[in-house]
Backbone:
């Protein structure tokens, strides 16, 4: 099946993309002391040169002491780190690319790959690392206000440096998602509550802060997931109605594009329809959406951390869904990590030249 649907242009507000392919945000931990190196810039530039429509950076953290859980994750604050990011966006633009940083705060999610511990305080809604595991104090109101402001400052810096959009990491059990999830948010103030709509308040305030910082035209993308790294089976919204109650305040706060993270994009979100998460989010909010999860690969990404290889897989199911506009954009993770040329090869029909994804690809910035 020809991949034409992937190569239609896409425009939303000031964001103009030559195709529908988005590089998924992928932590690489190649920024010593939080400063992106020239090698990091070259890694993104290679994807821009090879026709990726929109590059989302790896998660890059806002200015809170414990926003990251690995010293080699890049910061998005401080003179040196921002100078590193300026080099990244300038090189991506010189290659004709378009890019957004993914602004991140890990909250209480620790990193099993390192023994490094961030300076206190740990920021989390109720001091839980996962449901039932309380290990520290809840965030104070001051800490919450400072964190919301830190996202706004980072977004203002993204705009000043020349990035084309910003993405907020509200998925996978990190800080913003810890507020959504009742298992980790047991607050009784305005940032907690029995309903998902109430627990969306923190995310909505972050989006408002970012919107105020970037102005009306710059696109704000919000990444969300039902699943958590602490529990792959958990779901925030069990019905379309609950999903609508979750997403509506986030859109009203100023989100332009919803990035709907699944581990396998073809899995239906609710019984009785084959629409996936991005399909439902688009239907319920009317906003453009990004799908993601095992695009072009046989196996999903969590298993790949454990060493499982994935082989190139057919794009037909994805293309059918894209043709019927179930969603607007398609994020590709490991396939683009392993092969900077992935988008170009797909456009030219060179599918036999696509690579397997092997764990070894994580070891370098190829
Ligand atoms: C090495 C690696 C690092 C990742 N880091 C992030 C991250 O920083 N932020 C994020 O939202 N998702 C992250 N993810 C998830 C990816 O963005 C994507 O959702 C996932 O890999 C599924 O897409 P794929 O099957 O095409 O790889 C990461 C995935 C991988 C493989």
Residues:
């Amino acid at each position: 099946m020809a991949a034409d649907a992937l190569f239609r242009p896409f425009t939303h507000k000031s964001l103009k993309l030559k195709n529908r392919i988005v590089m998924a945000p992928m932590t690489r931990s190649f920024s010593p002391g939080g400063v992106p190196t020239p090698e990091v810039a070259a890694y993104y530039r290679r994807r821009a040169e090879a026709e990726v429509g929109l590059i989302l950076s790896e998660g890059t953290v806002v200015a809170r002491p414990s926003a990251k859980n690995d010293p080699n994750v890049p910061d998005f604050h401080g003179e040196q780190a921002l100078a590193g990011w300026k080099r990244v966006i300038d090189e991506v633009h010189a290659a004709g690319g378009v890019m957004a940083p993914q602004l991140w705060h890990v909250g209480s999610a620790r990193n099993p790959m390192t023994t490094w511990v961030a300076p206190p305080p740990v920021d989390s809604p109720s001091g839980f690392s996962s449901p039932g595991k309380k290990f520290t104090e809840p965030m104070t109101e001051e800490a919450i206000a400072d964190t919301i402001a830190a996202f706004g400052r980072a977004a203002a810096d993204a705009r000043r440096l020349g990035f084309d959009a910003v993405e907020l990491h509200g998925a996978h059990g990190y800080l913003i998602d810890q507020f959504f999830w009742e298992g980790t948010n047991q607050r009784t103030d305005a940032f907690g509550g029995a309903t998902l709509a109430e627990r969306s308040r923190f995310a909505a305030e972050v989006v408002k802060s970012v919107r105020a910082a970037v102005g009306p035209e710059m696109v704000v993308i919000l990444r969300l997931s039902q699943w958590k790294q602490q529990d792959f089976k958990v779901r925030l919204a069990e019905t379309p109605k609950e999903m609508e109650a979750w997403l509506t305040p986030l859109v009203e706060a100023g989100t332009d594009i919803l990035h709907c993270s699944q581990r396998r994009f073809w899995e239906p979100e609710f019984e009785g329809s084959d629409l996936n998460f991005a399909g439902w989010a688009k239907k319920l909010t009317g906003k453009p959406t990004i799908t993601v999860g095992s695009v072009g690969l046989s196996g999903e990404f969590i298993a790949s951390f454990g060493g499982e290889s994935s082989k190139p897989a057919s794009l037909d199911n994805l293309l059918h869904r894209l043709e019927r506009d179930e969603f607007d954009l398609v994020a590709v993770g490991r396939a683009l990590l392993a092969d900077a040329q992935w988008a170009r090869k797909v456009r030219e029909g060179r599918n036999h030249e696509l690579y397997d994804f092997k764990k070894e690809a994580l070891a370098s910035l190829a």
Observations:
- The chain has one domain: 4-363.
- DSSP finds twelve helices and twelve strands in the chain.
- The first strand starts at residue 10 and ends at 12.
- The chain has a mean pLDDT of 97.
